[in-house]
Amino acid sequence: MKTIFPAIFLVAILSGHVMVTSATNWGRFARCLKDGLGVRALLDPEVICGATRMAWSFAHMTYYSCLNCDKYFHCKGNYNAVIGCGGSPGARMAAETISNCREFSQGGMDADGMADDEANRFGRGGGDCESRYLCDVNCKFNPRGNTCLETNC
After folding, report:
1. How far apart are CA 110 and CA 96, in angstroms?
2. Which of 74, 98, 113, 147 could pair covalently with 109 via S-S, beta carbons 3.0-4.6 A apart?
C-alpha cells in the first residue's frame, strides 16, 4: 500500500481530480504540477518519495488545523520531502515544484505567499522547523503528540 499511494496521489494531482476546500485553484495547481514535473514523475522513485511526504504534511495541516501553524507545516513538509528522502534531486524537485505550484494556484506571491516561500526554502535547506515556527509564531501544534494545544511554549 505504501508504494501504491504515491502513484495514486500523483495521478490524481496530475489529472486534476483532487478537490479540497481552500483558496487553492486545484485545476491550476494540477496543470502547474503537470508542467513542472511531467507524467514521467510517476515513474521516478525520488519524486514519488518527495511528493508523498508533501502530501502527508498537507494532510496533517488540514486535519489538525491548529492556529498559527501554516508556516510550520510548509517548512516541515519541505523538510520531510527533501531530508526524509535522502536529499535526492528528485525529492527536492518535487518539494519545490509542489510548493511553487501551490502558491501559483492561490494567485501568486502576496506577503503571506512570500512568508510561505521562505518557510518552504528553510525546510528544504534542512532548517529546524520546530525552533523557527512553533513558539516564535505561537503555533498551537504539538509535533510530539500530534495535537493542538492551548499553549505550546
Report:
1. 18
2. 113
Nearest residue to 118 (alpha-carbon basis) of 127, 105, 130? 127
Residue type, 75: C
How far apart are alpha carbons 103 and 106 in whole angstroms? 5
Give yes or no for a contact between 115 and 124, defined as CB atoms under 8 angstroms apart.
no
Three-point CA angle 39, 41, 44, nearest 5°: 140
Of the candidates 127, 54, 126, 128, the one whose C-alpha atom is nearest the C-alpha of residue 90 is: 54
Q: For residue range 13-60, list pLDDT tens digits in order.
A: 444 434 444 567 778 888 888 888 887 777 899 999 999 999 888 888
- In the chain, which ranges are continuous DSSP H helix? 4-15, 26-37, 45-64, 70-82, 89-105, 111-124, 129-133
CA distance 69 to 62: 10
Q: How far apart are CA 74 and CA 3, in angstroms?
A: 24
Cβ count within 10 A of residue 96: 18
pTM for the structure as a whole:
0.81
Question: Cα(4)–Cα(64) distance, rounded to whole angstroms?
Answer: 25
